[in-house]
Design goal:
The chain is of the alpha/beta class and about 240 residues long. The protein has a single domain, classed as Rossmann fold. Helix content is about 30%, strand content about 30%. It has 7 helices and 9 strands; from the N terminus they run H-E-H-E-H-E-H-E-H-H-E-E-E-H-E-E. It has helices at about 10-25, 75-80, 95-105, 115-120, 135-140, 140-150, 195-205, and strands at about 65-70, 85-90, 110-115, 125-135, 155-165, 175-180, 185-195, 210-215, 225-235. A hairpin with a 7-residue loop joins strand 8 (about 210-215) and strand 9 (about 225-235). The longest helix has 18 residues, at about 10-25. The structure holds S-adenosylmethionine (SAM). The site of S-adenosylmethionine has 21 residues, from helix 1, strand 2 and helix 5.
Length: about 240
């Protein structure tokens, strides 16, 4: 059997990350997740209660929204339950989307797409809001994803996302980490870590303006710091 590796870095990243997240999905839905249980608020960080409150995305009523790297779909479902005319969950891992469909497939206004966010976005209708929570904006090269995202958003449309900043003494840019899973498997994942100044520059250079960066510190002793970022499509 021949195994063809994609040459383009974006395709390599997407295939490495899809493998990891499909493996995670195969371990089952997150503990305590009930079908149809839409969260009451968007958690922008992995520390519940930290980060922006509800309203960070504005009023979603009647809007077309996409979540890039939606995982098991809770926050895409939140957008649909809060008035979005269309809420599209995009994830590179087919099994994560299978879980999302199983949990939320019965809700109206939802659609799901499997694939690398940059590739899927190119085939979506124009959007009012794109958001991502430790999703594609963290796992894919923003230099490639941001222009495609800008191209899909209407002028004035909102991009909001959370990513981790580089850890202390970590160089910024493309990183490979190993996730250790509950079953002992160690799987590489690729992500892109930049500080606030670099994110502002990247957004500014790729069709966005009015950028706001909210740094959120992890609990005491945590080496992690999350940046919650919001910007508007120019034009
Ligand atoms: C840390 S999880 C976050 C999931 C969800 N946003 C949440 O808050 O629970 C990252 C997700 O991003 C997806 N992902 C990684 N790279 C992606 C890409 N290039 N395009 C779309 N999804 C991607 C992974 O498959 C995974 O489901």
């Amino acid at each position: 059997m021949t195994h063809e590796m994609p040459h383009d870095t974006a395709l390599v990243d997407a295939s490495v990350n899809a493998r990891a997240w499909n493996h995670i999905a195969a371990q089952g839905a997150p503990e305590g997740t009930e079908p149809g249980q839409v969260p009451e608020r968007i958690e922008w960080t992995c520390w519940p209660g930290r980060g922006p409150r509800n309203g960070f995305l504005g009023d979603l009523t009647g809007l077309r929204v996409a979540e890039l790297g939606c995982g098991t779909g809770e926050h895409t479902a939140y957008a649909a339950a809060h008035g979005a005319r269309l809420a599209i969950g995009v994830d590179v891992a087919a099994q994560r989307i299978d879980t999302a469909r199983a949990l939320f497939g019965h809700l109206p206004a939802l659609a799901w797409r499997v694939g690398d966010a940059a590739q899927v976005l190119a085939g979506l209708p124009h959007l009012d809001v794109c958001f991502s929570i430790y999703g594609a904006l963290w796992y894919a090269d923003p230099a490639q994803l941001l222009p495609v995202t800008a191209n899909r958003l209407r002028p004035g449309g909102l991009l909001a996302f959370s990513v981790n900043a580089p850890r202390p003494r970590e160089l910024p840019g493309r990183r490979v980490d190993n996730l250790t899973l509950a079953d002992g498997a160690r799987l590489p994942v690729v992500h892109y870590a930049y500080d606030a100044v670099t994110w502002c520059r990247l957004l500014d250079g790729n069709g966005f303006a009015d950028t706001e960066v909210l740094p959120v510190e992890g609990p005491e002793g945590s080496p992690y710091r999350t940046l919650v970022i919001r910007a508007r499509r120019t034009g």
